[in-house]
Here is the input.
Amino acid sequence: MDTTDTTETRAWLGIDTGGTFTDFVLFDGQSLRIHKVLSTPRAPEQAILQGIQEMGLSTAGLQVVHGSTVATNAVLERKGVRTLYIANRGLGDVLTIGRQARRELYQLQPPRQLPPVPRDYCVEVNARMGADGEHVSELTAQDRESLLEAIRVLQPEAVAINLLFSFIDDGDERAIESWLPDELFVSRSSQVLPEYREYERGIATWLNAWIGPLVAGYLERLNAALSPAPVAVMQSSAGTVSAAKAGEKAVHLLLSGPAGGLMGARFIGQQTQQAQLLTFDMGGTSTDVALVDGDIGLTSEGYIGSWPVAVPMVDMHTIGAGGGSIASIDSGGLLQVGPESAGAMPGPACYGQGGELPTVTDANLVLGRLRPNAFLGGAMSLDVEAAAVAVKTIADQLQLGLEEAAHGIITLANEHMAQALRVISVQRGIDPRPYRLVSFAGAGGLHVCALAEALGMSHALVPVHAGVLSALGMLAAPRSRQLSRTLTGVLADFSEGVVTQKLQALAA
Here is the structure.
């Protein structure tokens, strides 16, 4: 339990905003209280305030740790703000050209990726720095005039600045930032990811600017609504940071919620003295799987959508299969489950909120694997008849009985999730059989045994309060930041004193 700055804190509240539900875990120093409410995707803070009100809590004396999907959803739904991208002369197309590497090597017709930055929103400047840190060419007055004219015409909400070798000397990036109007959200590559490789650095810088105003605005509203409670935010690297700092580094929040789940699973592993874990986080919209071998693995080669994200994040694999995944029949007459999801609104048909499409949750209810009057601890009743009507649309098309069709939906969803577990283990040369399969999030307990059998695993672990384990993990997460910087030169020239000086400057 992180107790930083808690002189007057009487309780800690972990909040995990998911695609379908928002989860709450309250720890008062002695016992836990849990709560769930339906998420409000258009204004996530509304569900948080609703949950706090339903729990009868006052924000005075409360410390909040929050995992948010705002950054992730903005990227996946391509709903970032208008962003101007500033690059060196001749390098404006670097983000569009990308790398020649392909994630799916044998796909003969890989899908064409849309350019991250429309050409009209790219401004090139004459400044150029060489690999030795010396200027090849300087910024000019014309650069400033052209940039300000582009801002006047295009009216961007954010600006991303990515110049060559800015990790050696970021003077030009800082100079450009000083030219910009104060109301713009500015993302400098030397601040976001001061490392070599201009494409990866540029993508991280652009993503940070593209979603930064949305994330910062959301966190400002949340901070104001929860005042005087201090709010910390879960980062993709499984550490927490203050909401004020998190708003400046939105790109570090892309796996905010899933990272909390891994911290929770690691905590459970420590309590049960099990170090080797495969984690299975099945929510309403997606399923996240990861491997924990004592410590949580981090990677700087992760992806969000089709874009590489070179900032540190938990190493996991995500698929579009969850409790709200929609079942359908494709043009070839075959059953499909996901990746489309019913989400929180309207949700599965059994929620009684206007949803009519069959989902995994509806199939579980039809098969009697869910108790209709025990959902959300009895706070929400499920409509068995509506679920049966929805699943019957699949049964009729496949000419099957109702329960047979529901069983087919569950079987296919299980196979999707088992394959995700194989990706994180077998495809990396790791035998999953000695590991424990830890299931959490709301829907996981219904599927974990079938998945363990599919992978030949003999043990499955379903924690108490598995449905809110991500929120619990956020309370167990430490305050931490991941910092990095590329240093150039001959290794023999880097004495201990030089390296220490660089590390101190990085941490300042």
